[in-house]
Amino acid sequence: MEIAEINFLDIEENIEYVDILNKVLEECFLEENLKNKKLYVNIVLTNPENIRKMNKEYRNIDKETDVLSFPMFEKYELEEREALNEDILGDIVISIERVKEQAKEYGHSFERELSYMAVHGFYHLMGYDHIDEKDKIIMRQKEEVVLEKLKILK
Question: Whole-model pTM?
Answer without folding.
Answer: 0.92
